[in-house]
Specification:
Aminoglycoside 3'-phosphotransferase, Chain: A, domain 2, five-stranded antiparallel β-sheet, 2 domains, two-stranded antiparallel ribbon, 45% helix, alpha+beta, 11 strands
Amino acid sequence: MEQIKQHLSSKLGKEVLSVDFFTEGQIGDIYIIQTADESYILKTSLPSDRLQIEAKMLQDINKYDIPVPKVYAFSETYLLLEFIKEKGLGKEAEELAAAKVLTDLHSVTNESRMYGYYYDTTIASFMQHNEQTQYNWGLFLGQMRIMPMARICYDKGEISKQTLVRLEGLCRDIYKRIDMSSITPSLLHGDLWGGNILYNIKGAVLIDPAIYFGDREMELAFIVMFNTFGETFFNAYKEVHPLSQDFYNTKVPLYQIYPLLVHVALYGSTYTGQLEEVLKRLKV
């Protein structure tokens, strides 16, 4: 522990007084680092590029003046971040703050009009493979999101061969279900459940991103799935980005498949029933 303190002290340019266990993350333990005047978050993992990718994602979001924790240092085994001191704002104010952050985030696009990202990103403990040349949203969603995660679930024994075949058929026909011409690439957080957005006196702050460029309503379907925000959020969001006519009937169940597969891969049968309900709703 003393060696860790010394290393972090050199990175911060001031003495680290304590390293205290905070919580268990998807890929490793998380600690609170304390100096005489500041607190920090230290995320850890076995040697890999996961935390380096998270650092890059946070830095990329920050380029657009979207509030995220500041990155202080990172390596193959740790990521040192700003500690966000939370302050409850009340439900309405929090939903308005969330709407402001997400409308700003979703207003970010890219010159090449591509889907995916410039490098492979992560969600939870899984890699999200991206392509820099994919200009068809339906193909990207099926080939780079739904089917890779479906195969992980199948290999884990969490979904049946029949379900895998049904998903393959769905992905072949995504272009028949939604109007591709109305969709443009938006920068998505990618994993926006309630625990990944914090609030303080400045507003909302995004943490633990899983970014890529996609249909912004992919993010909204995730929000609906977990009931993260309510009417106040959606009313404010729609003032900037109106919802498509097929959002609730078609896009919500279709776009919930990928995050549900991620949760099936992580937590197993707890989410397979919900996945089946969505597939039935889509008549798959």
